[in-house]
Amino acid sequence: MLPILTLLLLVTSATSSRNKHKEHDFPQQMVEPTTSFAMTRLAMSQANFGFDLYRAVAQESPGENIFMSPLTTSLVLAMLTAGAHGTTEQALSRALYFSHLRNPNVHSTFCDLIQKITSGKSVSKMAARIFAARNIKIKKEFLDVVEQNYHAKPENLHGPEEKDLKRINSWVEEKTDGKIKDFLQELPSNLRMLLLSAIYFKGKWEQQFYKDNTSPVWFHVNEENKTMVDMMYDSIYPVKAGRHPYLPYKVAQLEFQGDKNMLIFLPDEVTTNLTALEQSLSSDLLLNLTESQLKSGNRIVYLPRLRLKMKKDLSTALNHLGLDDLFMAPDFHKISEEPLIVSAVTHVATMDLTEEGAEAAAVTGVFLSRTNPIYPVFKVDRPFLFLIRDTSTGTVLFLGRVMDPTDAAVEEEEGAEGNHGKRRRGHGKRLHKTPTTGH
Q1: What is the reported pTM?
Q2: Which domains does the chain have, with CATH numbers?
Q3: Mean pLDDT of the chain
């Protein structure tokens, strides 16, 4: 049995928590770095990899909600390329679109990209870490690359397993601001290395939704059924809106404070078949939409208040991207002389979508009313796809779809502390279409 190398991608995107002090594993810059051509090209490659990965996950998860972070996934795989050789390195470079860059300094460019992204107001934490068995000999050249460019400090696992689990889970809990606890229940028996990547996102809406306007509204799960969800509402909401260049989808861009936004793709008619849209996703499409297709204006906006969470082993999806070698007979001799094999690539992501965005303070002074026929309506009441981007670089931070919000209702704490005393805001009431003459 080969020694095991495990990749764990720990992601939490929180848009409804109190603002705490910022902490960066990637060093903060006194002056915000400028966006270079190399960074823009890398962001496009990272987006295309993310769309490929999303399509592979969607193929094996029909009808399910999806939420994932292309950024943390590509980051931890980029760390692997520093230790890969031969066909393994070539396969990783192809999947990550690094071969398109012709950039020998891709790792340092990745470092610059992350520093640029985390220098804004919305992303508060991003971190990477290597946990290794104490008797494995990791090559200095590999450690130099991952420490200098990804700030992934190595930490030895000394045992016993209970203490190692506690150290790993404590790191995860800290870097995700307490959103992911007790992530690992046990360690693989032959574990030699553990590569971790985490991002904690806080995005405060540029214009927050007024809480008193949130009310139960029907969400059409499919052509036959609908379910009640808490729907945020604003009668005068500034957005950039337009249409997909060749598919029947409305597109709206909602701004966070700082250089981040959310792009929502909403079908004209209720449908559970988003395949054509998913196949169309590319960095070129995003560039086309944001540069020429979307126009600024006010809309009447309805947006579900929800929480998404996904925990998934990405091994099968990565196999579809030509990375099956990672799990069979990879060449990682630039990491260690020991033969290493990837056992799992586990991805965990959560997102809260609420009225405030990231912080409950600073309410905007905008007049709100229940009816305003002057502005067009953008009502997210059917299955939709969304992504969150860093606009300064074009980097796709998060990507997902909502097919059924019934299990994605936000829980609000009634008490001040602890996980007890929570109430569910989602209603869960579902109507099935029946042959009647009334409404």
Answers
A1: 0.85
A2: 4-203+307-352 (3.30.497.10), 211-304+362-432 (2.30.39.10)
A3: 81
